[in-house]
Design brief:
two-stranded antiparallel sheet, elongated, single chain, 120 residues
């Protein structure tokens, strides 16, 4: 017995949903990968006080990255876990900023991977 047009539409919709879910998971995995690379880079460079004089080690130890999914938005960010982190970033006309230079390295790599995923 031949399947109805409605059955075919349901199968196609299920396949599209499955492709969407797999790509969404893949983009989140890429966000996890590049956020981990960014924080690893920061820790390896700030260990020698590249960005600022690490007097208490607290600011260095509490810097973090996080991948996220919020609705249809998937990405990652880098942030200080200390209240004065903002001042570390802007002090002396951003002479010792860490977040922007590191995100400038890793965000394009993340986006290139996402573009490659969607080109496939």
């Amino acid at each position: 017995m031949a399947s109805s047009g409605g059955d075919n539409i349901a199968i196609i919709k299920k396949n599209i949903d499955s492709i969407y879910d797999r790509r969404r998971a893949a983009v989140y995995a890429l966000a996890l990968k590049w956020s981990a690379n960014a924080i690893r880079y920061f820790r390896s460079h700030q260990g020698s006080d590249e960005y600022w004089n690490n007097q208490t080690k607290t600011a260095k130890d509490e810097m973090f990255t996080k991948a996220f999914i919020e609705g249809d938005i998937i990405g990652w960010f880098m942030s200080h876990g200390v209240e004065y982190g903002f001042y570390l970033e802007i002090k002396d006309n951003r002479a010792n900023e860490a977040i922007r230079p590191i995100v400038s390295i890793y965000a394009p790599k993340f986006l290139a991977d996402v573009r490659e995923l969607y080109a496939a």
